[in-house]
Amino acid sequence: MSQRLEQFRKALQRLEEVLSLQEENEIFRDSAIQRFEFTFDLAWKSLKDYILEAHGLECNSPKSCFRLAFSLGLIDHDEYWLKICDFRNLTSHTYNEELAEKIYRELPEVLKYFKKLYRIIS
Predict the structure, then answer these.
(1) Interatomic CA distance for residues 47 and 45, integer angstroms
(2) What whole-number distance in Å separates Cα of residue 109 and Cα of residue 106?
């Protein structure tokens, strides 16, 4: 778990780094979306590891892990977590400019959620 958690921490830093840049163009947007994708994957897998280690329970998909985290009181029951999962599912369609821009605009808020999750499970 500690190795994946460290990878999650580094991914958070990299996502925050690209979002802090003042440049706004397709290259930065696409880079931010790519960083979101791997940060999301590390977030839910770190959560999965934490739940297994701390509670002896298993979850095998992002939404099931976030729902289980809700039920365990680890994170607030907030539908935005499920929306973040949907964003991740939609990122394979980033060739759609409108969709890519919509997801990019949400990333600062997503970052806040990821940081809060990291504090909870670290």
Answers:
(1) 5
(2) 6
Helix (H) or strand (E) holding 90: helix 79-90
55-114 pLDDT tens trace:
999 999 999 999 999 999 999 888 999 999 999 999 877 678 889 899 999 999 999 999
pTM for this model (two decimals): 0.93
- Identify residue 46 by its one-letter amino acid code: S
Q: State how far Cα 5 lies from the chain centre.
A: 13
Helix, strand, coil fractions of the chain, as percent rounded to 5: 80, 0, 20
- Strand, helix or coil for residue 57: coil
Nearest Cα neighbor of 10 from 103, 104, 118 is 118
Burial class for 22, CB neighbours closer than 10 Å (0-12, 13-18, 19+)? exposed
d(CA 51, CA 34): 26
Backbone angles phi, psi at 99, to 5 degrees: -65, -45
